[in-house]
Amino acid sequence: MRIKGVLFDFSGTLFRIEPVGTWLRAVLDERGTAVERREFAAYAEGLTLAGALPGGPSPRRIPPELAEVWADRDRSADLHRRAYTGLARQVDLPDPGLYDALYERHMSPAAWQPYPDAAQVLAGLRSAGTAVGVVSNIGWDLRPVFRAHGLDELVDTYVLSFEEGVQKPDPRLFATACARLGLDPAETVMVGDDRVADAGAAAVGCEVRFVDHLPVAERPTGLRSLALVPHAPKAPGSARGVTPRGR
Known about the structure:
Keywords: Hydrolase. This protein is α/β, with parallel strands linked by helices and 247 residues long.
């Protein structure tokens, strides 16, 4: 198959969110809220267990009162905010304003770091004439993150769940991305880190390839290893893929 288009997930695939401790410290410092070292460690651990940082560790449990909101969190900006601030409120923080401030922080470009090979792979695809789309389950506009890191000009279209009212693995999200790129799904690869959500692309005929959701320093060549760019040498470590249905 000649690849004419590549769709990428955002969090855990092209970018990685900052660690929980860094996230919390940035907000406390910005608000001038001082806490003792032991208290800080307890707050950070509590937020980690609660899964309060979008793109960070998953919640250990979903409180019953948040179950419905959590299930549909990526369908709208309101549901996304309610889900994650609700999880954060499971931790008794010293300032009630911290819950919304933490949510706002995670949407800032400073909170995100691209994987080391993201720019190289995206630039290689652009040079090869391969169309690029970003398909993300998300509750806010991630375009400023791409612009701040100089990657926006390498993306042809963004298909975001909160704008479409549909979340992965619903195949409609992937079909929309292919249509906007003017491509047949059979000529398109979906790259993601979620073996359930991103695998939904196979239902429309895309090949699906996976990377591992690891800290930036631990995954320097994960995207390069997928050999998406024509004639580019494949990095060590073979990719695991999903074959489209009926192919």
